[in-house]
Fold each of these.
Amino acid sequence: MGKILGIIGGGQLGMMLTEAAKKMPEQISKVIVLDPTDNCSASQVGAEQIVADYKDKNAIIELAKKSDIITYEIESGDSDVLKSVEEYAEINPSPETLKIIQDKFLQKSFLLQNNLPVPEFINVDSVLDLEKGLNKFGFPALLKSRRDAYDGRGNFKIDSTKQIFEAFNFFRQKNLMLEKFVPFKLEVSVIAARNTKGEIKTYPLVENIHENNILRLTIAPARVNKNIANIAEQIARTTMNVLRGAGVFGIEMFVTQNDQIIINEIAPRVHNSGHHTLQSTETSQFEQHLRAILGMDLGNTALNYPTIMYNILGPTNFEGKYKPIELVESNLFLKMYGKKISKPLRKLGHFNLVGKSGETIDQLLFKLDSLKGKMSVNPA
Ligand code: AMP
């Protein structure tokens, strides 16, 4: 008899988890998502939905009572509430792991204690703390909101003394931290999985290109030498080992000018830079996450084809309904998320360009360039 899976969040990640769950009927009989948007992405592919805010305590209790196992697609959930519903459902990754990760300061402190490489950082409670930190790190430095920040929305880059008050006031009383700026040459990530039995597997290192702080494309595999790929993988394994949570995690890292690897941040969930695995590997990150939280053996993570994942983002100057996007091209796999409304830089879908005909990354990038004109989002 399959289990009932509850997911906090029913956006694109919840949608792709639901689709993976549908292919495992023996293990998962039903998916229920908790999401504030009526007819959210996950509900469009067959998940039952509880319409409520992610932090609505009663809704989380209802979800837990209806589910055997709970996971999440967002890291901003209330870990104390999750802890309190463990009597009803198993929660993976555990509320303890979530609590460490969802606060960037606690996360970086934890990594540092475990001898993992992170940028220098300090906690900031006052303008005085900020001034002290800037004296230590120099300019530029990044003031970051410790919690509830994603897609770069919680960061303020401070370039000079003149910006100190502006930066501090920008966050209005939030808990903050200051981080030394890393002049990286590349951003990379490892999608890693750890199952409830402690087995760990990693996907090959990928390269991430951001625009406006939002992931624009992922190149799999990353264009780095083997040594860098091995070190990144080792860092990811150690991270998974010390964190002890079960599930798939996205571990974002910087490669510095002198080829050092530094962890930027960890997401305790399936990750945008792992979407290529829908076509490039035998086991997608979504199936892997389900395998991990159900205590099944983890699947094969080898990369079968070089692949580029490209995010389809809402244009910056428009909010409203948009025309359907259709892209027919050999070895191009388009996935739209069923979101009715486009908003500036909203993630509406993605596609994977897969090198199934023996193309190299350079050839795929060239192909991507020729496709860019065809995939803009236009008002309906
Ligand atoms: P975050 O939301 O903290 O992952 O940051 C979003 C983006 O800001 C990252 O993908 C980097 O491009 C940049 N960033 C974050 N932290 C640093 C840092 N310490 N040094 C340089 N760039 C950073």
Note: The chain is about 30% helix and 30% strand.
Amino acid sequence: MMLMFCAVVGVLLAGCFGGFYVLLSREVHAQLDRQLLEAARPVISDLKTDPADEDDVNQLDLPGEYFALLDSSGHILQRSKNLQARVIPPGAIRWESSRTAFHTLADGGRGRLRLAVIPFRRGNREVLLAVAAPTSEADRILETFRGIVLILLPLSLLVTALVSTWYVGKSLTPIATFTRHAERMTEQASNSNPQDLWQPLPVKTPRDELGRLAETFNRLFDRVASALGQLRQFASDASHELRTPLSVLRGETELLLSEPRQPEEYQEALRVIDSELKKLSRIVEGLFTLSMADAGQLRLACDPLYVNEVLEAACVLLTPLAQAKNIAIERDLRRDYPYLGDEVFLRQLFMIFLENAVKYSPPNTSIKVDLEDGDGTMRVRFEDQGTGIPPEHQAHIFDRFYRVEQPGCSEARPGEIPSGGLGLAIAYAIARAMGGSIDCRSELGAGSTFAVNLPLHR
Ligand code: ADP
């Protein structure tokens, strides 16, 4: 991994230095070309002002700068003093176009020369001024640069490798700690309670990426641990709830079978068995609805219906139970409220609130049911004059199997609605599946109001 990283960095560094070298070399040669043009300018100007002078260039003797005047066919007319002794091979000075041209020539064992060939008119003749200078200075700069690169490249690679080894090692330390932590938890996982199992990951620097990662994991595992805890609690509550009716059923059947009985005794026992079986099937159906909702598989139909009609049907179904306690269900549901939804689940939802209102209201009271829409929401309210819910319990009434023990409301008598602690949990799950919410306002001894808010467009 590290070798690979160093190889990549090496290639990148070599590329950078190479690019830099090319740019430097171009700039150095461009600078030399500019120098040649600068040196040529006054000479050309002299030659132009006095076209008859045949000795202008011959008298020039500048160190490191060579001049020659040629006619358009390449024949040398004049040359500077430092060129007098030199043999300029024919064709060495080439000129192909009407513009200034630059060449680099070998200087017979003395290095190289940069040559500028500048065409201009002298009097009525087309002539060329050739200016040359040795490239030794530019070559020296480039050679020095190459030497520096040869030292700098391996050195920077070495420093990069050292720094990255140190940095990567330092950055990975928290991950190694996380891994050890996770391994310890895996070892304990089989024999612990989920809440005890989870030890939060250490967060040293909450602002960097690993700190944030550890915090996110801590939050995630907190949720998973609490969901697991809820699941265990749910399973133990469910088995507890199922155990009571089952033991009543077993007791009744054992008693019946222990000796021959009178027909009235059989009837009485069958009534008890029937009531316990109803309780059981209610719990099982409730658990099924909740598990479907938890799995996101509560399949809700999307049929056109009138909410007022579904609500009226639920009120009619509850009327016999309400009448048994002389409770009036007051409603005015004549206006049509069109809605797209699932009639069966809607009725189940409304029945839960109506059942509770009847169950927890004293005789000779009334329950108000009303329906309104606005702001894209349908609001159904159930207001009773019942026992009310103590404030400390209000936050928990939507939990599964949560019941507020109230004096006089312990066991349902035959014909009454049994209390299983699942009603509001199911109502909450259905309302959520419909994209809605439930509000509850309750005052102890004065009554409760439950409101279901359902969005009209989803
Ligand atoms: P249960 O089957 O016990 O009614 P729910 O989940 O429907 O279960 O209700 C949970 C608890 O909330 C009930 O035990 C009851 O104490 C309280 N509750 C619900 N509705 C009302 C109401 N309308 N008036 C008073 N208490 C209520």
Note: The mean pLDDT is 87.
